[in-house]
Design a protein that fits this description.
The protein has 137 residues and is an all-alpha fold. It has three domains: 1-55, no CATH class; 60-99; 103-136. The chain has seven helices and no strands. Helix 3 runs antiparallel to helix 4 (76-83).
């Protein structure tokens, strides 16, 4: 799964301090054993209290992350990967209302993309060639 550079900067020192290997879990009861959810909740509650912040459930943090990805303009397929959804339909079912635009705006985008009638054929051929080259590569 892709990792945001800012998150990697934070997690890498944690892994190094823990003595865990590159393929090991950063968070877990043991290097290859996932954490116990109850222990995570207790640790999170302690951290919230220490920081004098209102408690945020881990699932709320997950929804916040998805919302931030959408606000940043990340595409739905990438969000599906980040969130670990089995299909893009799950992503749209949960977060579809957060994506910008309407059918009218999207039609205008396509029209702008295609440009004037004389330029359309050339532009479409260029775009299709680029797609074909990326697929072959």
């Amino acid at each position: 799964m892709p990792l945001l550079p800012e998150l990697r900067e934070y997690l890498l020192p944690l892994r190094l301090r823990s003595g865990r290997g590159e393929e090991d879990l950063v968070f877990g009861s043991k290097p290859r054993l996932p954490f116990n959810p109850h222990n995570v909740v207790e640790s999170a509650d302690a951290a919230w209290a220490k920081a004098a912040l209102e408690r945020l459930e881990l699932h709320e943090a997950r929804h916040t992350f998805a919302s931030l990805l959408i606000a940043a303009g990340v595409g739905p397929k990438a969000i599906t990967t980040y969130m670990g959804h089995a299909s893009i339909q799950t992503t749209f079912d949960l977060y579809g209302q957060l994506f910008e635009g309407s059918e009218t705006q999207d039609a205008a985008r396509v029209s702008d993309f295609l440009g004037p009638v004389g330029a359309r054929t050339s532009r479409i051929q260029t775009e299709l060639t680029g797609v074909q080259l990326r697929r072959r590569g």
